[in-house]
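Structure first, sequence second, as always.
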């Protein structure tokens, strides 16, 4: 794999002491360009969770595939005050309302939990 590319600050927040909390990775089963990822998922999710005081989106990236060439999936990095079930479900509900495809998952970095979600058939 080529690794996460195009438009991410992935990992930058962990070096910045102003970001405190628990980190989540949202792996979206969506083959969208970085600008589209921001427009469709990253910015609306950030608006929702920051307004609610839950947390903030701190970065994102796009995974490129070796064969066949193209986008495999995209990630969002989210920092939350806590990874309670209520917080995780609020994030999942918002992403599903935004069109998150089946096969997406939320990964809680502190304990490795993976929560699969998505209601739509796909986004490319």
């Amino acid at each position: 794999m080529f690794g996460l590319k195009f438009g991410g600050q992935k990992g930058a927040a962990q070096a910045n002491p102003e970001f405190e909390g628990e980190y989540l990775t949202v792996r979206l089963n969506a083959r969208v360009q970085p600008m589209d990822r921001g427009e469709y998922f990253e910015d609306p999710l950030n608006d929702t969770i920051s307004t609610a005081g839950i947390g903030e989106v701190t970065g994102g990236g796009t995974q490129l595939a070796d064969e066949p060439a193209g986008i495999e999936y995209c990630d969002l990095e989210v920092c939350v005050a806590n990874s309670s079930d209520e917080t995780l479900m609020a994030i999942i509900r918002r992403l599903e309302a935004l069109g998150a495809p089946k096969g997406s998952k939320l990964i809680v970095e502190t304990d490795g939990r993976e929560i699969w979600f998505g209601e739509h058939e796909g986004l490319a």
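Margin note: The longest helix spans residues 34-51.
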